[in-house]
């Protein structure tokens, strides 16, 4: 019998080991070389980079540092790009398309080197990722993509036929898939806490519960206004992503906050985990609204996530939908309880590519489209180098701002309809797939 009662907790599973807390109150400086807005992965890595280069840096966050997506995500180091290579080539030309794909490999290496060189205690494991397909047509495409990644970029990637699927994932739902060995998993709240630790040690100042209410140009710089006072800055870097508010209306008209929800099971027997996730890999699937899932870092639970069409409160229906998806993949979990259900905002936009851009003197590092574990630190570091004028600031993701969304000013009233449309696309694709 399926669980119908609420999960034990409505807070992120990750907060059990790394709770998000306010920082001690400190006076706001009168001036800074750089003010960074947003203390998630991108903002903190940018601040760390700038502070170590000798800049006076102040980071402002309306919430507690990391309280947004940085401590709520799945902790999968995917570095996905939503557009296919062919789509990138049609829109930007082959040269930039290749540069974007190649930079994804560099960004993952940056993440892994950063964790190692800084000694970040975040339960990182380079496990690989299994990508499940829903039909033979998708399998052929996934196999070609895996071969291309291996041949063009030297990424350890290979196809997995259905007959070998259970060696990687204990489900019969898929019709094979592919594996990339350059993707792993970490504990995202621990990762953020460790980045915050080294950023504070670098000399950057970070303020929690300090929302920006206005940014105005003044002389050769800017004045950033907060409830705690004003701060003059030569440069301002915006890193707010899925929690962008009215203080930066230009960005707010371009980013759509979309809820992504996760559930965690209770602890499972070791033999059951060995059957369902024998290699303890990260996992995703070939659907528009596909699930992403993984074992917990200790290998005792399964955590599964997906898009959530709700926009207010914390309704039960999205949790039950994820549970239904979990059981569809692993029928053996029908009677297993859920320990946690939570959500956070990811930021989508019309181009669906992370980016760095400038507008009226302000620099933005944002738009991670659900893959911020890799992209946010990388884009934040490149934006910092751009502010300093160094060659390291060059990036294939430094481009024009994403286009504004018509009739949109921050409230994504259209998302429930879009989510339902995507679900219909998945149902049609499943019906048409050669199973």
UniProtKB/TrEMBL annotation:
Keyword Secreted: no
Organism lineage: Bacteria, Pseudomonadati, Pseudomonadota, Alphaproteobacteria, Rhodobacterales
Cited PANTHER family: FAD DEPENDENT OXIDOREDUCTASE DOMAIN-CONTAINING PROTEIN, SARCOSINE DEHYDROGENASE-RELATED
Superkingdom as given in the UniProt entry: Bacteria
Coiled-coil ranges from the UniProt annotation: none
Keywords for this protein: Oxidoreductase
FAD dependent oxidoreductase domain: residues covered: 33-384
Entry GO MF terms: oxidoreductase activity
Keyword Oxidoreductase: yes
Species whose genome carries this gene: Frigidibacter mobilis
Protein name: Oxidoreductase
One GO CC annotation: cytoplasm
InterPro entries in alphabetical order: FAD-dep_OxRdtase, FAD/NAD-bd_sf
